Amino acid sequence: MSTWANLGLQDSASPLMEQLIFFHDHALLILVMITVLVGYLMFMLFFNSYINRFLLHGQLIEMIWTILPAIILLFIALPSLRLLYLLDEINEPSVTLKSIGHQWYWSYEYSDFNNIEFDSYMIPTNELSTDGFRLLDVDNRVILPMNSQIRILVTAADVIHSWTIPALGVKVDGTPGRLNQTNFFINRPGLFYGQCSEICGANHSFMPIVIESVPVNYFIKWISNNMNS
Ligand code: CUA
After folding, report:
1. What is the pLDDT of residues 131-189, one digit of tens each?
2. Ligand 1 site, CB within 6 A
3. Under a CB-based contact definition with an 8 Å cutoff, are residues 19 and 84 in contact?
4. Ligand 1 atom nearest to 198, measured from its CA
5. What is the pLDDT of residues 3-15, one digit of tens each?
6. For residue 201, which of 155, 156, 159 has the smallest C-alpha distance?
7. Cα(5)–Cα(50) distance, integer angstroms
8. What is the pTM for the complete model shown?
9. Atom 1 (ligand 1): residue with closest C-alpha?
10. 103 CA distance to ligand 1 middle (Å)
11. Which CATH fold would you assign to the domain 95-228?
12. Neighbours of 141 (CB within 10 A)
């Protein structure tokens, strides 16, 4: 999760988020180089007193400053396209989780396991424990196994919501009447916090998501306990 003064991206907990961070840094580097170059040129114009009364055209330089930016854009466009398709690739998921957005909470279904289903509400500030995170903790967490491919199906019951976990690089809209799909792979244990990110009404800010990533054998224990009850 994000902590104090963290204005950048959160540490990644999945290979896809790692790639997203690499791409962000790559694009930022190109952006900084362009900004510095253009800034330098614009600044230097103030001190430029060269005048050429007979200059009517400069075919060569115009060719260069048209084609060069286009090539630079390719260095952003191609990795971006690669990431786009990488994010959409479903790779033999071992668990499927269905999450349904409601005004204003999430509900979850583990369709592979006897259709376990539960609601996940934010814990109100006045009921929060001393080590809880305000506006971020929920009563029922999503338990998921680490080191496994997980497919997530997202939909909504009333208006558009968005199931978003920054550390995993996941952001899928839940739209009424549609079923959206994505996948991720959590590569470490821990708690991963997320929030709805479609403006979905008065309590939009108060429908957080908490994923508890555990080793596979713990997940099997948890799931079998819940299937029996
Ligand atoms: Cu649901 Cu914003």
Report:
1. 999 999 999 999 999 999 999 999 999 999 999 999 999 999 999 999 999 999 999 99
2. 101, 104, 161, 196, 198, 200, 204, 207
3. no
4. 2
5. 899 999 999 999 9
6. 159
7. 47
8. 0.88
9. 161
10. 7
11. Immunoglobulin-like (2.60.40)
12. 16
